[in-house]
Amino acid sequence: MNKIALVLLAILLVNCSPKQTKLPFLGAPVVSEKDTIYPKIHDFSFTDQDGLEVTNATFKNKVYVADFIFLSCPTICPKMNFELKKVYDVYKNNPSINFLSHTLDPDRDTTKKLKDYKNALGVNKNWFFVTGNKDSIFNIASKSYFTTAYPDSKAPGGLVHSGAFLLIDKSKCIRGVYDGTNAQETNRLIKDINVLINE
Length: 199
Hints:
Elements: H1 3-16, E1 30-31, E2 36-37, E3 45-48, E4 53-55, E5 63-69, H2 77-91, E6 97-103, H3 111-121, E7 127-131, H4 134-143, E8 149-151, E9 159-161, E10 164-168, E11 174-179, H5 183-197
Parallel strand pairs: 5-6, 6-7
Antiparallel strand pairs: 1-2, 3-4, 3-7, 5-10, 8-9, 10-11
Helix pairs in contact: 2-5
């Protein structure tokens, strides 16, 4: 194949390749004549593994991935943490990408236990493990992140929760939801973070 044919083939492949330049906004928007306003994560205040306050301002001008777990979880949490660590490993040196794991069991998951767990994972300051008022955690899970989280004495570990990873943009809007127990979904999240930071 001559050089001209190779160049034409390259141009054709580039032009025919699907381009994903923007992720969707998730949640029911409020639509007016002039604007469409998508739901945003409500203001919050929790305490991280070092005993420091973590709020919306902590993630100013940052993209972050949120999830809901608890350390004594006998079902999906270990798999979720394994999968999210893969995502973290790709972006750990990018200070504009953060991770936020909320414990659903603040009575048992003390700041010391969260810190020990974070240290065992070998992650740095880009990943926050937070605790706080139980009702506030359940509230933000259902009303801001639109994910499942509630106590149930019949459930394994006494809690029902979604295994979702939620991708949040710099404006605090949800831009993606991923099954935290599925390696293919993990790969999709890794790619979507890159799409989001390049929008």
